[in-house]
Design goal:
Blueprint: H1 3-14, H2 20-26, H3 31-43, E1 63-71, H4 76-87, E2 92-97, E3 104-110, H5 113-126, E4 129-136
Antiparallel strand pairs: 1-3, 1-4, 2-3
Length: 152
Amino acid sequence: MDRTDLKILAILQEDASLPVAEVASRVNLSQTPCWRRIQKLETQGVIQRRVALLDPDSIGLGISVFVEIEAADHSPEWLDSFAGAVAAMPEVMEVYRMAGDVDYLLRVAVGSMADYDDFYRRLIGQVPLKNVTSRFAMERVKATTAYPLPAA
């Protein structure tokens, strides 16, 4: 990846809906070479997909809950069961396997406490868990999907 690729990535992270002509202009390329670079970045998996980012409050999912999970079991079978359960729950936005005293961290989006209670009951009913701790975000101070890139 060269400096031009990094510039293209920085631009697309800000607004992936820009026409190729605009991206090409910003990186001082003509459209065809710019489009080829974008396609190559997609083929290589650097660009995984292009999506619309929604405002969670506008769609009634303004409550962010960070759920810490301690596993009751660490077998491959338990992990498969857990991974399948959380993958099937649309409220789960992200899942991380953690180092330290918590095994997994989930970011969950819900619209109300009742919605979270429903999610929690389904979660604990799906797989055996040692401990579940929920932390409710009071305010989103910063939110970004753009990764910091080396100076382009």
